[in-house]
Here is the input.
Amino acid sequence: MITKLFEPCMMNYKGYDKPIRYTEEFLEELANTVTETNLVLEEHLTPSIGKVSKITFTDGALFGDVETEEATDNLKYSPYINCTLQEEEDCWLAIKPTGFKDIALTSKPRKPVSLPNTNNGGSKMGNEGSDTTIKILEGQVKDLNKKLVVEENKNKANEDKLKKFDEMEKELKDLREWKETNEKIIEEQKPIIDAYKKDQETKRSELINKLSNGNEEIKAQMKDVDLKTLELWDNLQAHEQPPQGISTNNAEGLNEGDGSNDAEKERENRMNAVENAFPDLFNKEE
Here is the structure.
């Protein structure tokens, strides 16, 4: 007996947060995929009680030849369709049908969320179906616009990053050029710098010897003193000494006093001047 099995609609199922939508295109593709399946009772849990064959999509609905010894009066058909579900804004859209698990006879058919109006069993959808389609399309457009904004923001962020990379690359190029230029200058000036450092160290060594009068203990204390400080000490010491040849006891009389002007007295005066200028350096334990 040729019977209408299913038609385009949206159905609620347990475990799904949104109804599943079955379109005309989907049911037509399903009919072209499979020609027959088993017939069972209620929730697809009983053994086969017959079969459904010659499955076709005609006049906007799915039809089939039902063969069974069970009474089918006042019962409805509930196909268990194997397919892929694609999430939409207000439903799950059934796509890519691969066939039936089976078709159940049920006394408690699920109530469609929205059922397309038909004209004498025809395939044209009425206003309700059109409104649902429009809502779905509007939802898809809304989602696409959201995705477009996200992608545009990503693109803008990437453009900003590329701009910064370009600036950093230019800075790096300038730094490399500066480094190469200055390395050449440093290399050219290196002999002059080395000679200057050597001359400074020689002067520092000579001043340490002069100011310490050869005293190794004092030399050790002066080993880290910089050249400018040593030159200052030397200048201070020069102002503390009387002119050579003049008695330290009576600087006004050229022929008075003991006439002491030997090297030992000069060294003593030099050391006294340094010690008086920087007493902390020459503190001795009592």
User: Anything to note?
Assistant: Residues 115-129, 250-259 have pLDDT under 50 and may be disordered. The longest helix spans residues 127-212.
